[in-house]
């Protein structure tokens, strides 16, 4: 039996086990997917033990996506550019790191509508998630990307050198919001449903803009609610979550899992809460 897992801290509320178990069952594979909490303080010892165990592959989530890199035998070039790994595969007894977050996001976005080179994309935020999405966009699309961040220097550092892309402040982005046809929200601002702050004001949003938030819990952030009120086409982070998982699943098993089955398993678990 193959054994897959997700490691992180905290990990109790991760929906990855439910989602991957659904895919395993659907394909009738002889496999299991579990969760493992690793200690932040003893990460060095615990990750070494894990790599000596019988695992066949695992996902890595917060806060270990960067810390895992030096323990792996190889890191693929895209994950290296991201500086972060979310998927680890055992191949011929070597541990190889990948990052499926950005490409998973992009798959989800293009399920909504295909990208056009005339699109003008705004990414809000310049953290780890933003970087993966930015790099995946750069692989797939020739148009312009603008990154807006509270700390401008972090957005500047993220951009590829010699590209025509731009780094701007959140205020500047709000002031020219009508120029963008796709807006991707990657900051943590919407994570707390009690807090109705927006990362930036949406007054100048054009109706018909595609607005995507990588958060799916809460299911619809204040940011998406406000965007919808202003006539945007909106998408939450569930598509990214499902697609990053499906890409990881393919790396481990070689099989293309049924994304609709994975998505439904996550939705069902929300309803049970
Ligand atoms: P992740 O890996 O999830 O992207 P991260 O690397 O900690 O997380 O990045 C968090 C992002 O959210 C950053 O862009 C951060 O802005 P700064 O670079 O200025 O810190 C952004 N962010 C967090 N809280 C914010 C807030 N209250 N207002 C605006 N941006 C915020």
Mind explaining what this structure looks like?
Helix 1 (16-27) crosses helix 10 (259-272). The protein has 2 domains: 2-99 and 239-272, Leucine Dehydrogenase, chain A, domain 1 (Rossmann fold, 3-Layer(aba) Sandwich), CATH 3.40.50.10860; 102-236, Rossmann fold. It has 273 residues and is of the alpha/beta class. The relative contact order is 0.14. It is 38% helix and 20% strand. The longest helix is centred in the C-terminal third of the chain and has 16 residues, at 238-253. The protein has a 6-stranded mixed sheet with strand order 2-1-3-5-6-4. A 6-stranded parallel sheet has the order 9-8-7-10-11-12, sandwiched between helices. The protein contains 10 helices and 12 strands. 2'-monophosphoadenosine-5'-diphosphate (ATR) binds at residues 125-130, 149-151, 154, 186-189, 199. Pathway: Metabolic intermediate biosynthesis; chorismate biosynthesis; chorismate from D-erythrose 4-phosphate and phosphoenolpyruvate: step 4/7.
CATH architecture of the largest domain: 3-Layer(aba) Sandwich
Mean pLDDT value: 96
Protein structure class: alpha/beta
What's the β-strand tally? 12
Shape: globular
Measured distance between first and last alpha carbons: 31 Å
Biggest sheet details = 6 strands, mixed
Name the poorly predicted regions: none
The CATH C-level class name of the largest domain: Alpha Beta
Ligands, ions, cofactors:
2'-monophosphoadenosine-5'-diphosphate
* Superfamily (CATH H level) name of the largest domain: NAD(P)-binding Rossmann-like Domain
Named CATH topology of the largest domain? Rossmann fold
How many discrete structural domains?
2
